[in-house]
Design goal:
Layout: H1 25-33, H2 48-53, E1 57-59, H3 62-71, E2 79-81, H4 99-121
Parallel strand pairs: 1-2
Helix pairs in contact: 1-4
GO molecular function: protein tyrosine phosphatase activity
Family: Belongs to the low molecular weight phosphotyrosine protein phosphatase family.
Catalytic activity: O-phospho-L-tyrosyl-[protein] + H2O = L-tyrosyl-[protein] + phosphate
């Protein structure tokens, strides 16, 4: 997403993250298949400070909106589903699932990220 949003700072954190843990092997493998390098990425826990500093917080599941608000109540208004504009709004956690599930989730995240990039970058000049 960062490549598609050069004028914006994009970061990642988890609500129930195992802070310091490396990305799941299957996630690394799936991303690499699509030219995305996530090796070396480590999990970090979402904090009130991160929520406060963010202009926009994108989450995977509807329940995550409430979880972010539990971390920092004032962040509720800027917390939105990553898949907001996709037919399927919930992006499931593929942890300990099949490689097919990781692929499906990757595709869903990629589609959602492309739409967000278009919306945040504004209309393309003609």
């Amino acid at each position: 997403m960062q490549k598609k949003l050069p004028g914006h700072r994009v970061s990642s954190a988890g609500i129930n993250a195992l802070a310091g843990k490396d990305a799941d092997f299957q996630a690394i493998k799936t991303a690499l298949k699509h030219g995305v390098v996530v090796a070396g990425h480590t999990a970090r826990q979402l904090t009130p400070e991160m929520c406060n500093a963010a202009d926009l917080i994108l989450v995977m599941e509807p329940a995550h909106i409430d979880m972010v608000a539990d971390i920092l109540p004032s962040a509720r208004g800027k917390t939105i589903l990553l898949a907001q504009w996709l037919p399927k709004k919930n992006i499931p956690d593929p942890f300990k699932q099949s490689s097919e599930m990781f692929e499906a989730v990757f595709q869903q995240i990629q589609s959602a990220a492309e739409i967000w990039a278009e919306k945040l970058n504004g209309p393309t000049p003609a």
